[in-house]
């Protein structure tokens, strides 16, 4: 067997038995005792708390805490988990206490030096964004419970600009987070179709009688983006979309191409120009306001209708701020 196989076999034996000597391990695995010593050193280096005691009743054994928590991770995996937890905590993720318990288990299976390293690495990455709404945690937890158990929900949801409340039965298939907001996607019995709902607009939520079958392979994120984003450049062209040509600095065009709307619609790019294929609804709703935010770093060359729209928006802003307010 390879060294990794021998290490895993020793770990399983020590978990299953109270303690074993190097001779017993060597006989069990049919290897030389020196191989056992090297494997024990490798387990300790990987963070497994193997205790060695000398004397007549001595031998190797694992701490009870590690026997209860059999999973172990190499240093890179531990660091990745700690950093991922930082992202989850800043998103409103509802299982913060469970995450902290997981961190505690990782630390308890580490020696003093490893624990100090983990605590230091945890502070390397932070996520800067607005504070999460504490009320969302309860909604997200109930949604996740319903998804996991395939349980239908009764939901009061604030729709439209004025927040009119509607009551509906909802089968949640999955959760997605996009642009700082949580969304629940699934089947809406009121509309008789798949829908996505912003969790912060849910005003009431409770488990209902009845269950559902979640479509295999359903992705809440993919469904959400298909509904929010415009068609991709090729699809827009086939559907008679409008070509938008923009010239500007390389930095400004890079920023434009990274935008959630324009990045999906990119059709052609050079160092100083970019062409996008957008449907008309996206073109005259969200696009002009973002283009204006880039100021003189870009210039829209076509279409003429978009140039006219930008000019009218700029003139309206100029008129609004033409006079200094009194006082």
UniProtKB/TrEMBL annotation:
InterPro entries (UniProt xref): CBASS_pafABC_assoc_protein, HTH_11, PafC-like, WH-like_DNA-bd_sf, WH_DNA-bd_sf, WYL_dom
Domain of life: Bacteria
Residues in Helix-turn-helix type domain copies: 9-60
Domain WYL span(s) in chain numbering: 139-206
Name the UniProt record assigns to this protein: YafY family transcriptional regulator
